[in-house]
Design goal:
alpha+beta; single chain
Amino acid sequence: MSIYFFRISTGRYSGAADQPYEFEDRVAAWTEMTEVCANLLGGIARSLKPNAEWCMELLDENKKPVFRVSLVGETIGCKAS
């Protein structure tokens, strides 16, 4: 079993959980991370501003990123008002 931590970033805010999570392997860790993201993304997408980013990372026991899922709102081809 390996120890992982979740970190969520949005704009200037970034915070890693102090509570560790144990997963059997990286496949199990990825599966859990994507399930957590799926539960959160609807609400996040509804409040995401143009040119903003939301990101969830899964960190290893040394708090180094292993996986990242990002949601980016981009303004393309026009000037923001």
